[in-house]
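Let's do one together. I've listed all components of the complex below, 605 residues spread over two lines.
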Amino acid sequence: MIFVKLVWTNMERHRIRSFISIAGIAFSVAAMLTVVTILQGAVGMFSSILSSDSEIIVFERNVSDLFFSSVPQSAADAIAKWPTVSHADPVLFGVVSSASNPIITCFGVTAGDPRMRQATWIAGDRTNFGQHVDDVVLGERAAEFLGAKLDSHVPIGHATFHVIGIVKTANGFEDGGVFMPLVSAQSFFHKQGSSSVITIKLRTKDDVTAFKSRVKSNFGNLIALENSEFNRTYSQFKILKATAWAVGGCGLLLGAFGVANTMIMSVFTRIREIAILRVNGFSHVQVGSIIFGESALISLLGALAGLALGSCFLFALKLIPALHGYVDSTIHPLILLIVIALALLTGIAGALYPAIYAMRIRAVEALRFE
Amino acid sequence: MTVTDNATEHERVVLHADEVWKSYDRGAITVLKGTSFKALEGQTVALCGPSGCGKSTLLHLFGGLDTPDQGRVFVNGIEVNRQRNLLKLLRHEVGFVFQLHNLIPDLTLEENCLIPTVAAGIDRQIAHERLLHLTERTGLRHRLGQRIQKLSGGERQRTALCRALMNKPKILLADEPTGSLDEEISARVFALLLELVATEGVTLLMATHDRGLAERCDRLLEMRDGKIYEPAYAR
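Okay, and this is what the predicted structure of the assembly comes out as:
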């Protein structure tokens, strides 16, 4: 109890300084949580496009970005006929711009594509999709920012398209995107006879290994990965995740400097007190524990405040209409644990030098210290 | 001839400084010049001498707070300057009382007194019983929950005395224990100190300027020119 009080008392003595340190950690944690959650959400959304009613994705081997992948239509046709395959859906990704929007994601899909089947049709009839090459279906948010209505014509890239439907999906990329018939997209993006990926639904999941082997032997330049496998290995996802953690890590590093500064000041202001403890039998470890304890408490309070702040921030982002569907404010428990652990590690790292300094204080000299 | 020279085989030497040298500022100031000294179990020993003569230094050496440049220091027959002995020494063998009480102002009287028991990992119940016993003896029991700032000078020094005796040390090292108190309070605190060391069976080594107090101890030693002299003196 006295040990805890020795930790708490010093924080209480220097309330403002402790508060600033807690705030530093809190903002670092909030920044990390927000950036990581947003990017994880974005990655999750992109992967959910690919995993829509499918469990395997086939794409060009060794491409760093799916936008550059080219899968021949013949491969899609052949794979669709394999007995273990329930359905194979080629998807062509493209990015275009309009007058007011620099980036609009386009999806070239077939009429029977699961993305079209699963979307909620706000306007238009799904059976009309794919009948004319200049027909497009817009995501709800895309229709909003393009100012398009059913049956209107919208300029997208270098062409004008006829809007035959507006769909609502839970996915930000799809909601802000344009669905074109696959043939139109191939022509529009100069990728005749190919798609970016083929999403595969097998009849039974037991056939996964055999399917992957067959793709490898029949199409040497293609690779088949299960969705989870793809999410783990796709280099763009890895880069995004690494960036998120790096940005968050930089924030925590700054937090660590704040803690270090606070703890150094804390040790300097209690040199005499540390000497008293040493004279009364406190070991180096016990003295160090008080310093680490104070630092851990600051970090823990900072982490908790940061979690609250980050959650509020994510919730607020979700309320912004322009970001609807792009921000997944669900904080993954693993991310939560990692962020708290990192905050505590930050606190401990920040207290390392001050604790060593405190442990080396010579009682006989410190007792003369005023 | 000193008292220790007359020690019988039943009397045990608990403090022993053997040809101890100690200097500061890289040898610029030498305070102890081959000082030798012994104290027997249960004795009360006063060290007198002018400021800077090395009284506090000798106390610090016996408490393991400092190390001699040359010579050896023993407490209860064990050489002090061995790192592994230091914690045991500070936790169980010696207690310190300083001129400034050196209490932690944000803690209560009770918490300050319990610090040595926390350091030594003594059972809370046992520690609490000891605390009640000592505060009863020193008349502080009704002040247990008080913060140090609210205590008088005499109460603070009595608290420091309680804290020093919490782990039942065999030796009490007191550095001007009443130096910051007025004459009347000083006499009362010192009387209490002597009473406690007598009943607890503690050996007292006290540095003091006050010859009046010093003469109430079993032995009065004088420090001059870095050495200890024991004048012909009997209580």
